[in-house]
Fold this sequence. Notes:
Mean pLDDT: 78
Order of helices and strands: HHHHHEEEHHH
Number of helices: 8
Strand order of the largest sheet: 2-1-3
Low-confidence stretches: 2-11, 17-22, 179-193
Helix content: 40-55%
Number of strands: 3
Radius of gyration: 27 Å
Structural class: mainly alpha
Amino acid sequence: MRPVLAVWLALSLLAGTGAQEVCGGPPAAPAHSISAPQLSPEERLSPHMPESLRCDACHAIAFQIEEQLRRAEGKVGRKALSESDYVEVLERSCSQGWESYGVQELDGEKRLAGPGLPRQEPMSVMVLGGPWPGRLSKMCHGYVGERGEAQIYGAHRRGPAALRELLCHGEKGACAGGKAGGPAPPKAMQNEL
């Protein structure tokens, strides 16, 4: 019996049949096709962050500023930084490379992805580099110029949520008023006189 089995196995292997027919072939792996996000002319060519991605960009900027300030405070024993130190840290935060950020398309919607942003689909293509680092740097410098270093550092000292509120969800924030790219927090009612 053994010699017959050995001959059958050898002939089956040479003929390319046998084991797969007897045992069944390997299970078919589901096929996935992943394409890069299709960017509009504005998304590819404009020097400005597209409106639909500004809220995500603001959260990325707030995260990076928070991380840089936290690291700097860690070097001085978690004490408050001097004005010259936090001004320098904010400049460095905005002038960094930003190369780890890019755009992904999920369910037909483009979203900025990178550190400090919600985890996106693991099976997707992210477009890195290109115009995104320059746009993030420009937005960051704009926030520092508009809000001022002291106000940004004060918000940081109150916590990450306060910094995100100041930069992203305030009256002029990129996420305010239900703009694309993220929900706005509910606004408190104001009494008029």
